[in-house]
Amino acid sequence: MRQGxxxxxxxxxxxxxxxxxxxxxxxxxVLQVHSAPxxxxxxxxxxxxxxxxxxxxxxWVSQPAAPGSLRAELTWKGHPGTAGAxxxxxxxxxxxxxxxxxxxxxxxxxxxxxxxxxLGLFASTTSANGDILVPENKLRAALSxxxxxxxxLEQELEKLLGGAWDNELExxxxxxxxxxxxxxxxxAEPPPRQEPMPR
Length: 199
Prior knowledge:
The chain has helices at residues 41-52, 82-90, 136-147, 153-160, 163-176, and strands spanning 6-11, 14-19, 27-36, 61-62, 70-78, 97-102, 110-116, 120-126, 132-133, 182-183. It has 199 residues and is an alpha+beta fold.
């Protein structure tokens, strides 16, 4: 039998296609709700629960950067694309600021989604350390627009890096430092431990 995703058994001049089943891929991610009105919090939990397929309870605490609103963080485990599904479920809700990240998996890049009521949605591919990766075609378009004077290149690059979203969300991030985090009940095992590199 040959190695690969599918193998052929050859018996008496006949071939049978035997498909090997791949183990399901799962990824870890984090939902950070930076600010939400208290009345919206249960609806956020229900929307996320509907996306990840299990009950979700988030540890809501006050958000000093927006008095009267709450913040929470949830670590989740799911299938690749879960971050996009969570973002789709929450994007467009009035007075809600959030970020969703998803680690890379086989065949899928790591992702980061940011949402604010003023700016809407920003989505980016990220590297292992969280840096935003800008696709070549977008860089070429920015260079072309900058070269012909249609846009100021620095401003266009700042858009590609999500600078406006970072500027708006940074006060909420800083105010939330040290706030409690909850792991989704779907998370069955801890994330893999990374060994320190030898010196």
